[in-house]
Amino acid sequence: MKVSLNWLNQWVEIEDLDADELASRLTLAGLEVEEVERIGEGQEKIVVGRIDAIEEHPKADRLVVCKVDAGEGELRQIVCGAKNMKAGDFVPVALPGAEPPGIDFAIGARKVMGVASAGMLCSEEELDLATESEGLMLLDRSLPVGKPIFEALGLKDVVLHIGLTPNRPDCLSHRGVAREVAALYGRTLRAERLQTSAPAWEGAGESIEGAAALEVVDVEGCPRYTAAVLEGVKVGPSPLWLRQRLAALGMRSVNNIVDVTNYVLMDLGQPLHAFDLDKLEGQQVVVRRAAAGETIEAIDHKTYKLDEADLVIADVSRPVAIAGVMGGAESEVTEATTRILLECAYFDPRSVRVTAKRHGLHSESSHRYERGIDPGAIVDNLGEAVALLLQAQSHLEGDAPVVRSGILDEGPGVEATPAISLGKDRANQVLGTDIEPAQVLAYLKSVGVERVEEDDQGWRFRVPTYRPDLERGIDLVEEIARLHGFDKIEATLPRALMGHAHQLQKDTERGTIVSRAERRALNWVRDLLLSQGLREAVNYSFMGEGDLDRLRFDEDDSRRLAPRVANPLVQDQALMRTTLIPSLLNNLKVNRAQRRQDVGLFEIGRRYFMTEERRTLGIALTGRKRTHWSGEVSWDFFDLKGMVEALGQAFDAADAQWSKPQVDEPYLHPGVQAVWTVGNQPVAFIGQLHPAVASKEGSDQPIFVAEVDLEALIEEGAPVRKFSASARFPAVVRDFALVVDNEVAYAKLEDAIASLCGSDAGFGELFESVALFDIYTGQPIPEGKRSLAIKVTYRAPDRTLTEAEIEAADNALLAAVESQTGARLR
């Protein structure tokens, strides 16, 4: 929205305000000023001049030589090709060095056909005040000679380019912005713009009923339609003041009829349309939906095939305008027009928006109708437009136009907005301010919000019809904040709540209430995985049927019973996800497409089932870890296992153990997968992606994935931070190579060693740790068996171990693993 400060000053006193300060104030109030354009600045070399004499050019019949007084004390000689001037006329003079806004070069002193010319006499087109002109711009002879033309004509202006949000259609006019300025600076709108005399159609000539008829068939699409009829109009150039106003906003002057409709659009925010009444068959206007197969040639001279949902303005036989979007060429005003029907209506915003989008059209009118104009000012705006049309005819020769008595007016109108309630303390509670109730009322009154009821608890307000964005109490709080000044609201820390309320806060990321302890636990999980070199992924909570097939789930798998999305955006997001694995595989695929082969990702999200939701951790690893000086190492199964075990240790998970799943996960390699249970409850499944799945993913390297039920872990308690003093006595490290059957899991060996910690033999306190560091099969290991190499660390908390103690511990360990797993020392 472009706002001329000269124009704005007609509505509210702003002459004492600095343009940049005003722009800053409007921006802070939510009307972002994107540019401050200064019109006429730097144009001081275009001045008012008087032609003292005109002589013929000695070498060119189409040129003349003018002697011009430009206020410099001596006459200038300027060669000119125009024919509409005479000695004594006042004209704009561009002195050497000037750059008139309507041309793309600088004026200089030069010879024209051998005659010296020191400047240029200008037309309106060359000053960018008209799109075309037939000769020089002739000025009022009372203007001071030598004065800069933009200053002399009042053309010097500042234009604010305001980037409005769609919820503020009231500011798509100078009147709307003036309301904002008046509210921000505590001023009132100028009385002369608010006092309107009786409309021109009251007490006028013959009744409008004899000239035109109106029928609104679709009142939903057009709740209010009004029109006036003017006869004996003269279509011609607009007066200078009107052309100047439009030129300041970058709008070209067309003729006095069209210019008035554009002026009212920018002044009041009311779109209008003028029809040539004699071109309307039957002199009737019908507001209806388009019929099947109908077309219209619009004023852009393009033909549009109309949809049956399009709202149109028609006569008795055909559409003559696309309602609220664009007029038709067959009924547009031309120089031959003598009778016009001036439309001023309210069209449903949604209807206009859909139609404009369907046909790829956008106009200043549709821009306003789509957002919603003021339904309460239709008749007043029509009256203003008719008065301006009469004024725009007064400078033309001939009789004044005649306005038919009365107007066409049909439609139920728009329902009034219900009153809005606001508690007396609500604004201060939300904003953290201490604004007095009287000031709250003053702020709201300044933007037209009227108090209708009051009690001890609060007020009820009536919202003006030009503010469709004010619907709830919180909207009024925002108005109070804007007018008070966002910059005046102090930044303060929130007050701490005590008791149970202190323990709960909104998890904005997931839309659920979580305890602070749970939030700490989730953040700890993130920190742990980030420290392992992983990156966090954030995905939508949706999946498609293809994702379930992709992971080879059986038809009776419970994960296929996913909740369905009522209106999915796309079919591959038609289900709420019951597993995080497809999302992470998609992330890996995107990384591969971007030539990133070495990726470690995790996601904390939710899995959705018919009866519950489970907060879950998903992990996906592929390729190499970070490059290290010792060489490049790839992610593997044991990296994944270590991450899950670290989580278990942090949450102090009791009775946690690894085992082979009773039923293989179909998307995991049957020989490289494991289930992690806590208290006999499955908490995590980890493994390598099944080759059949991996091949369809397009990966030529192993992919390792894990899914951890964080709900179960968090139920165990928050991560535990345990203190242990640094060991004072040396450790003893022993390596054992144990031969076991292939069916014996390493976890069984760990369990056997752990059983010694609870024995009465006195060895329990010596076992500090045990770790697997090698697996070997092949000769000389018998077929069906494998060698597991483990590293065992002994340490006593209060002494250095003796050889006898170490030997006794070795024997106890070997005896335990042999008796419980059949393992023998290699």
UniProtKB/TrEMBL annotation:
In Swiss-Prot or TrEMBL terms, this protein is called: Phenylalanine--tRNA ligase beta subunit
UniProt subunit comment: Tetramer of two alpha and two beta subunits.
Matching InterPro entries? aa-tRNA-synth_II/BPL/LPL (IPR045864), B3/B4_tRNA-bd (IPR005146), DNA-bd_dom_put_sf (IPR009061), Fdx_antiC-bd (IPR005121), Fdx_antiC-bd_sf (IPR036690), NA-bd_OB-fold (IPR012340), Phe-tRNA-ligase_IIc_bsu (IPR045060), Phe-tRNA-ligase_IIc_bsu_bact (IPR004532)
Q: What is the species listed in this Swiss-Prot or TrEMBL entry?
A: Lujinxingia vulgaris
**Subcellular locations according to the entry:** Cytoplasm
Tell me the ranges covered by the TRNA-binding domain, including all copies: 40-150
Reaction catalyzed: tRNA(Phe) + L-phenylalanine + ATP = L-phenylalanyl-tRNA(Phe) + AMP + diphosphate + H(+)
| Coiled-coil ranges per UniProt | none
